[in-house]
What we know:
- There is one protein chain.
- The chain is α/β, with parallel strands linked by helices.
- The chain has two domains: 2-174 and 359-377, Glycogen Phosphorylase B (Rossmann fold, 3-Layer(aba) Sandwich), CATH 3.40.50; 185-357, Glycogen Phosphorylase B (Rossmann fold, 3-Layer(aba) Sandwich).
- It is 46% helix and 15% strand.
- A seven-stranded parallel sheet has the order 3-2-1-4-5-6-7, with helices on both faces.
- Helix 1 (12-27) links the parallel strand 1 (2-6) and strand 2 (31-36).
- The protein is elongated and about 70 Å long.
- The two termini are 14 Å apart.
Amino acid sequence: MNILHLTTFLQGGAGRILTDLALAQKSRNNEVYVLSSKTSEPGYCSYEEYINKLQDNNIPLYEEDSSFKRDLGLNLHFASKVREIIKNCNIDLIHAHASVPALTGLIARSGLKKYIPVIQTMHGWGTNKKPEHEKMDITIMNGLDQVVTVSKSDKELLIEKGVQKEKIKVIYNGITLEQNDEVDPVVAAELLEYKKRGYRIIGCIGTLCERKNQQLLLDAIKLLGKDYNLFCAFIGEGDLLPKMQKQIEQENLQKNVRLYGYKPMASNYIKYFDVFVLPSTSEGFGLTIVEAFKEKTLVIASDIKVFQELITDGREGFLFRNNILDSLIETLKKVLCLSRSKIEEVIENGFARYQKEFTLNRMIMNYEDLYTIIVSQD
Length: 378
């Protein structure tokens, strides 16, 4: 099968899923192509680690502006590139990873003798969408052959928004058990030094932004760090970084908090954490939680719907009330006082959940089955 993936940028969890999926499809004797936006935007770009993986595996990556901006002229220009690839590479199926790329796929396939199915994985519903953008995205999705959500809660959300129920299928994201040990040696050494000095390492990975809500964790560490001997490592860059760094300096939190910025293969640092915390107010899935399950690291997360799908409080991890500082503080205190036997029980439950539902192979097989059904219908 000849598959074309369309995306805005190869970034974050969605970029990782697209890259892993493309590599797996290539290894299964499919011809795979990827097209993304060329010019970076504030807070948005394609990560070199994903670009390099595609190149190392001989997967063509095309870049053209723009599948990111909601600009008809730029979108039509991008669609013309999609159409060119369809014709030159005899594409059988288009897999988009956001609504604007999906729109360009719909435009590009129109009028062709061969019907090209277009599907979209909705990796998360942006919290800052304008009403007109919501309507646009819903209209696009209702025109697709299939919409995939990465959680049941997102499926319910799309149905509430007006996407046809029969068009939506849930496929959980998956990750491989295999990994490399690539880390920044300076960061790794610092984390190990803090452990050696008796600190408990609290870790958080993700773009520093309001939606990920790292500010809440910083406020909790400010109140708990010294009394509980905590060191908190934030890995990621974003809009909140300058504000958080200023607070750390003004309030003399340097001994208890470090902002490490963006790091390739960020999930490789989870094994250094005693507790992984994800305080997001909104997520499409929560891939780093699954990474923590795989690494057998304790997890604390906000009790948003998608995280309730991943964690039963006290079983695979621990939940606190969304965006409530006191609740996060109390949950941290409880987890830090757990017995070794309870810690091991929760860790093993999380690992078992990963093995049962969130492996890369399971995700790949689910997409392969979906592709086969959609292509055979046309």
